[in-house]
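Extended Data, panel c. Modelled sequence:
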Amino acid sequence: MEVLNGARRIFAEMSAKCIPHAIIAEVDGNIAGWCGVIAARGEIADLWVSPQFQRRGVATALVAEACQLIRTKGGTVAVLETHRDNSPALSFYHRMTFDICWQAPADWDVVGAVVEKVGLRKFL
């Protein structure tokens, strides 16, 4: 129940941030991950997979579904951003055929620091 309540909180936060689409991955009745999508902008705004379900294809399925949603809404490019030092995420996105298209420092309000971010894109 705690995971479900946490998921509800995250989805409420997504809605408050104007992220209109949330794709949920479920494995054996458990929330395995989710992906927030702003299809009108072609943006994958959030991706999370529970540690117990990582490296089991959940993120791949979520990103593929997000790209399909963007495509059905008329998009030709999917974009996202992550931290430059997040090697596992960058490796994953490269396997999903995303390419880095920009890099810049960005304020990260959560920790009150400036971090290097990268933008990635995939032509659909």
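The two ends are 37 Å apart (CA to CA). This feature is highlighted in the accompanying rendering.
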